[in-house]
Amino acid sequence: MDASIKLGRIWNIPIGLHPSWFIIFALLTWSLATGYFPREFGGLSTAAHVLLGLVTTLLFFASVLAHELGHSFIALRNRIPVTRITLFIFGGVAQIAEEPKSPGAEFRIAIAGPLVSLSLAGLFGITYLLDQRIPYLAAPSAYLLRINLILALFNLIPGFPLDGGRVLRAIVWWWNRDFRKATKIASFSGQVVAFGFLGVGVFNMLRGDFLNGLWLAFIGWFLQNAAAASYAQTNMQHALQDVKVRQVMARECARIPSLMPLSQLVEENVLMGGQDCFFIADNGKLRGMLTLKEISQIPQPKWRFTTTEQAMVPISRLTSVTPDTELMQALQTMDTAGVADLPVLDGDELVGVLTRDQVLHYLRVRAELRI
Fold first, then answer.
1. How would residue 368 be classed by pLDDT, with cut points 50, 70 and 90?
2. Residue 276 lies in a domain
3. Quick check: helix, strand or coil at residue 73?
4. What's the pLDDT tens digit per position in 283-304?
5. Domain CATH for 249
6. Calpha distance 75→266 (Å, rounded)
7. b/e burial code for range 27-60 (CB count within 10 A of at least 16 → b)
8. Residue 260, SS3?
């Protein structure tokens, strides 16, 4: 999940917000300011309730971030890169670049988040005991104690991709030594949990508790999709195991001169030729790479006056792979760099290009051949 708003980095991990985060931020702040705090701490003013709602919501999402940092810290300790952490409408997600190499590593990474949340619940509980007589401190402490406890217990539900589902996968993986089968079992458990949430949500809506029911149904829908996607990703990783870039890459790369206008390139090579990725080269020397992404960032009226050299990504900024790079590693490189095409270099020589479309085509062919 990509974050459109960048907040910064922790341990060199990008931290960001998905646009949906603002929806849950507003709803939670409103719920606290108009419902929870007036009910539990009615002696405070309306302005105080609103202020406490804002502060408590921010502290809640700081708790969610700490939960995800718990996963990330253990992943980094196990030499597994973390691509980014994103806060969104259903909480947060740490995007770990590759699967753990052992059941033990999987278990430690999965359990770290709930342990952080339980620790925070204990911390806020102690704070509440010490500041019960100060409403401005007691109010957020009491709520954050409860919500961090709920966060930990919810995530320990044994349904993939929740943390409890990953713990379940680690245990099954340790037991049968088959990562793919363990993922299948954990994903099935995750879908059972998801349909349970959907069923309870629909039941609540039929009983008249529409908002809570709708929220539970949304959670179930999200978990069901996430479980199915996680299992599909595992199948993809299995299919691409030991496959090298040289087996998938295109060896015929369109090379175009650096002074060609974009208008000519689009007319002759894109619209008529069906090409979408180009290498800019003069006298056999590679200067950069140009894709439809870079072209689309330039207003169409300027295409006649913009050369391919002006629009390209210079070779010094290109992320590349070699023919012997593992295909899964190349896909992780694409994801990290935020690109859909990678030049393939053998030493200093350009020998091909790897695109996401080629990988998808390779997977489709394997599926059709049932191999």
1. confident
2. yes
3. helix
4. 777 888 888 888 988 999 899 9
5. 3.10.580.10
6. 44
7. ebbeebbeebbeeebeebeeebbbebbeebbebb
8. coil
